[in-house]
C-alpha cells in the first residue's frame, strides 16, 4: 500500500486543530533524557533507550536509502525480539506503514497478504525460514535484496540485519507525518481467501496511546509482553509503553513459569494477557512462591475473562485487573475495573471515554436497554477501512439515526440498567435450534461450573429434528474423572428447556489461536463437512450421530 490512506474515509470523530506528536519524533528525546533507562529486555539481549534509538534510526535511514517512500508498507514475519521492536519503530520513524505478519498463517496466505499491502521490504526471523521458502517464489515484486533476516544467521533468507544496516547513520531524522497517514496494517485471521488488512492511521494510534497512559502505561511502566507483535492485543499495551519511554520485557514464546520468573526478576508493573494465559499462570504449581508485588495492573482482552478466574487472580495476584473489550477495527471500546465492580465480573464493563455502544436487531433497528442484539460502536479510534476492500468496509458500517458511522461487532450482547455491557456470543456462532436462539456462552458457563471441567466450548452441529443442536466439547481437569453422560445431565439441570446440550464429547485439548481464542470454526468443520452451514436466518436438515436432548 502506498499513500492509499488519504483516499479512505475518516469514520472516527474529528477534532478541529487536533495536534499530534508522532511516535517517531517523540522517542528521539529519550536518547538523552532516558539514555540509560532500559527500553527493551529479552532473553537474547537488551537495549537501553540510547541503544534502541541508535538502532531505530539506523533502520529508518537505511530504509530510506534503499528506496522506501512515504507511506510504503514494510512487513515482518518474526517472533518477539529486541530487533523486531527496533524495526517497528524504525519503519514508523522513516514514515513507512508497518505490517506485522503471523507465523501461524499458511505460505499461500502470507503471499496474498504481502501482495495485498504492496510490501516494499520483508524482514524474517530464522524461525520462519522454512515458511518463507513456501511463498518466496511468488514474491515477484519483492527483490531478494529487500528480504532481510532479523537474526545473525541469514541462511535461506538473505543478508542479516546487521550486514544490511552496514554503516547506516544513527542520526535522528524522523519523517513528518499527519493524523491521516498509515501507521500499521493488521491482518485479520481467515480460513479462505486473503484475510482483511485493517488499516490504522496515526489518529487511531495516537489517541489510543494517550488513553492507555491513564492505566499507568507510561515512563515508569515495566510491561511484560507475552503475546505476539502481529496481534493488536499486543500493540494496545506495547505502543503506549514505548511512546512514554517505559520498559518492555519481551517473550519470544509464552511459558507460564518463565512468565512468573521474568515478572519477579524485572519487577513487572503491567501485562496484557488473554484469558487462557491467566488460567495457565494461576495453575502453575509454584505460583504463590513468586514475588509479584511489582504489579500495578493486569489487562485482559481477546475474550471475556471468567468470573472465577478473576476472583482467583484478585485474591492471589497483586494489582488490579482491567478487562478491555474492543475490535481490532476500533469503534467499540469498553473497560471493566475489576476492583471497583466485583458485582459486574460477568460483563466487559462500560464504554471508555469518547466511546458509545448501542444494540441493534437483524434489521438494523436500535433496541432498548436490556434487549439482546448485535453490539455496534463508535469511538475516538476507528480504522480507516479494510485495504483494497471498500465493499467489505461498507458492510462493517451501521449508520445511526443521527447519521454517525458505527462499526458492527458481530457480537451478540446486551446493556444492563447500569450501562454495563454483556457479551453473549459471536453472531456467527449463535446456535438456532428448533427456532430458538441459543447463546453458547450460557451453556459454556454451565459446563465450566462443573468441578471436573477445565475447559469447554459449545458448537452447533447438524440435527435432523432441530436444524442444529448444541454439542459440548470439554477438557477435564488433571486428575479428575468424570463421565460425559454425568456432566451432561449435571449441566442440563442448570439450563433452561430450550438450551439443553444434546451431547458431550471429551477432548484432550481445544484448538486455540496464538492469542488464546478457541477456534470454533475448526471444531465445527468435521460435523458440517459437505454441508452449507447455517446463516442467522436458516437451518439445515442433516443426520445426527449422537443422542438428542428431550422435549
Automatic annotation (TrEMBL):
AMP-binding enzyme C-terminal domain span: 443-517
Name of protein: AMP-dependent synthetase/ligase domain-containing protein
InterPro entries: AMP-bd_C, AMP-bd_C_sf, AMP-binding_CS, AMP-dep_synth/lig_dom, ANL_N_sf, ATP-dep_AMP-bd_enzyme
Source organism: marine sediment metagenome
Organism placement in taxonomy: unclassified sequences, metagenomes, ecological metagenomes
GO molecular function: acid-thiol ligase activity
AMP-dependent synthetase/ligase domain segment(s): 31-386
